[in-house]
Design a protein that fits this description.
The structure is a single chain. The chain is an all-alpha fold and 213 residues long. The protein has ten helices and no strands.
């Protein structure tokens, strides 16, 4: 199941990168917006096949981020992400240069396509492992790196540890909040992160717009 998810995640990421090559955007903030739209298209296709085969309830429960069922025997697959994160850290400097654009990276002697492809494989593998274990947690990978970038800059190697720590603290806060709001019942972590994350994302958009003016 993980290999199948990894394959589709990698394919989807490559398609997304091709879409970005074709779309002429004036601001990098449009990249996550294009990603959200592309994700909704994929989600609509998934819902169609799930509806056709009477799997709506199963796929909704499976994809929705929830920690209540995480117990021994169901989280060990997350350990696969540890060596992948180490590889990401080793390539962090190259990812930083690649993020400045293909022309700039090539002028510095970087094999741009190779570095981007390595990054896509890392993202696809880690994402598939997390979704299979926990489910989807919206906005987490969108808002946390941007918040860290505001006070640590764009140097990936210097911000990776801060991103991981802030992401963990944010998820822990949302998990605790979801457990106490309607105690003794529990609100799924995906819902809490989605509500708070969407508010933070809108704030970042408005902050950027005010800064540009």
């Amino acid at each position: 199941m993980m290999l199948l998810s990894f394959g589709f995640a990698l394919l989807g990421t490559f398609i997304f990168m091709k879409i970005l090559d074709k779309v002429k955007y004036k601001d990098v903030i449009f990249i996550p917006l294009v990603g959200l739209m592309f994700g909704n298209i994929v989600g609509s296709m998934t819902t169609f096949f799930a509806y056709k085969h009477d799997l709506i309830q199963s796929i909704s429960a499976w994809l929705h981020g929830d920690f209540s069922m995480i117990m021994k025997g169901r989280y060990e697959m997350l350990y696969i992400s540890i060596p992948i994160v180490i590889v990401a850290y080793l390539y962090a400097d190259k990812f930083t240069v690649a993020g400045m654009g293909e022309e700039f990276a090539v002028n510095l002697g970087l094999n741009y396509k190779q570095v981007v492809n390595i990054g896509l494989v890392i993202v696809a593998l880690v994402t598939s492992v997390v979704i299979l274990t926990v489910g989807m947690i919206p906005f987490l990978g969108l808002i946390i790196p941007n918040i860290v970038t505001l006070y640590r800059g764009d140097h990936l190697k210097k911000s990776l540890a801060h991103t991981a720590l802030l992401g963990a603290v944010f998820v822990l806060f949302c998990d605790v909040l979801g457990r106490i709001i309607i105690y003794p019942y529990e609100i799924a972590i995906g819902l809490i992160v989605g509500v708070i994350g969407s508010g933070i994302f809108l704030y970042l958009l408005m902050r950027r717009k005010a800064y540009d003016h």
